[in-house]
Design brief:
The complex is a heterodimer.
Chain A: H1 4-26, H2 29-45, H3 56-79, H4 82-87, H5 99-114, H6 117-127, H7 133-140, H8 144-169
Helix pairs in contact in A: 1-2, 1-3, 2-3, 3-7, 5-8, 6-8, 7-8
Chain B: H1 3-11, H2 22-36, H3 41-50, H4 54-73, H5 79-110, H6 112-116, H7 127-136
The chains are: A mainly alpha, B mainly alpha.
C-alpha cells in the first residue's frame, strides 16, 4: 500500500485538477466524487502504479479520463437518453456574483455539455490545464494531430454556440 | 470575435473548487479499501505459490488430461496374454504347496513329540563310504 503521506500529497497536488476535468466530463458532482474516490482507491491498492511515471499530473488525468468515459458509457447504456444528461447539469465553473459573468459561465457549461466527451476533454486540458497538444496527446493516448483537431472542432462549436452572448457582454 | 480573445475569455473562467470535506472522506475510503484488500497470511501462502504462474498450472493440468485420455484409449490386453497369465497360476500354486509341505516337515522335526518318537533308521550311506569304513576296521 502507498504510504499515507504519499496519498495525501497526491491528493493535495492533483485532486483539484482531476476534479475540474471530471466535472467537465461528467457534469455531475456525484459521479465526479465516485470517480475520484475510485481513482484514489486504485492508487492506494497499487502503490507501484506511479513507479517510473515522469508526469504524475498527466498520468492521473489520463486515469481519471478513462474512468469518466467508462462512467459515461455506463450511464448512457442505463438511461439511453442523452437529453436527460444535459438537463441534469452540475457546472464545472465557480459561481459568480456578477449576473453577466454568471450567465456566460452557465452558457459555457451548457455548450461544453453539448460537445462529445473526447472533444470536451481536449478543450478542458488545453484551456484550463494549460497543456500543450503533445502533453494532451500523451495523457489521452492520442496523436498530436488528433488532439489539435479535436480542440479546433470543439472550440469552433463553442464559439458558434456562445457568439451571441459573448458579443453582447463583451 | 477574435480567436485569441475568445480563447482567453474562456481560459479566464474560474473553475469550481473541490469541496474541502471530500479530502478526508476520499483518503479515508482509499486507506480502508487498501487495508481490506490485504489477504490474511493463512490463506495467502498458497495463492502466492499458485497464482504467479497460472499458465504453468493450466499447462500441467492439460498434459495430465491428455495422458489420462490416452490411457483410457489404449486397447485392452490380448486374450493370449491373458491366457498365458492364467496358465502361470497352477504352477505357482504347486510351488506354494511344496513350500508349505516342507515347512510342515520342518515344524514336525522341531516339535517336542519328534524327540520321543522312535529314531528313524539311519539313511543308507553311499557304498563308497561303507567300503572305506570296513577297510579301516
Amino acid at each position: 500500500m502507498a504510504a499515507p503521506l504519499q496519498l495525501d500529497r497526491l491528493y493535495d497536488d492533483h485532486a483539484q485538477a482531476i476534479f475540474a476535468l471530471l466535472m467537465n466530463l461528467t457534469r455531475s458532482e456525484a459521479d465526479t466524487r465516485d470517480i475520484l474516490q475510485e481513482l484514489f482507491i486504485k492508487l492506494a491498492r497499487s502503490p507501484g502504479l506511479l513507479n517510473g511515471v515522469r508526469d504524475e499530473r498527466a498520468f492521473l488525468l489520463r486515469l481519471a479520463h478513462n474512468l469518466a468515459i467508462d462512467q459515461i458509457r455506463r450511464r448512457l447504456t442505463r438511461e439511453k437518453n442523452c437529453q436527460s444528461l444535459a438537463d441534469d447539469l452540475d457546472s464545472a465553473f465557480a459561481v459568480s456574483g456578477h449576473p453577466d459573468e454568471s450567465a456566460f459561465r452557465l452558457a459555457l457549461a451548457e455548450a461544453l455539455a453539448e460537445l462529445p466527451a473526447e472533444q470536451r476533454a481536449v478543450v478542458h486540458l488545453k484551456l484550463w490545464e494549460g497543456m500543450t497538444f503533445e502533453e494532451i496527446a500523451s495523457a489521452l493516448a492520442l496523436s498530436v494531430n488528433t488532439a489539435a483537431s479535436r480542440f479546433r472542432y470543439g472550440l469552433d462549436k463553442l464559439r458558434a454556440r456562445l457568439r451571441p452572448l459573448y458579443d453582447e457582454i463583451k | 470575435m477574435k480567436d485569441d480573445n475568445f480563447e482567453e475569455r474562456l481560459r479566464r473562467q474560474p473553475l469550481r473548487p473541490i469541496p474541502s470535506e471530500w479530502r478526508g472522506e476520499i483518503l479515508g475510503a482509499a486507506r480502508a479499501a487498501a487495508s481490506s484488500s490485504r489477504q490474511p497470511a493463512s490463506t495467502s501462502w498458497w495463492l502466492e505459490w499458485l497464482w504467479p504462474c497460472p499458465r504453468a498450472w493450466a499447462g500441467l493440468a492439460a498434459a495430465w488430461i491428455v495422458i489420462l485420455a490416452l490411457q483410457y484409449q489404449t486397447p485392452p490386453p490380448r486374450k493370449a496374454e491373458a491366457k498365458d497369465h492364467a496358465n502361470d497360476q497352477p504352477s505357482k500354486t504347486m510351488a506354494i504347496e511344496e513350500r508349505r509341505r516342507e515347512l510342515f516337515e520342518v515344524l514336525d522335526l522341531l516339535s517336542p513329540t519328534a524327540a520321543t518318537a522312535p529314531a528313524k533308521p539311519p539313511a543308507p550311506r553311499p557304498r563308497g563310504q561303507a567300503r572305506s569304513e570296513t577297510a579301516a576296521a
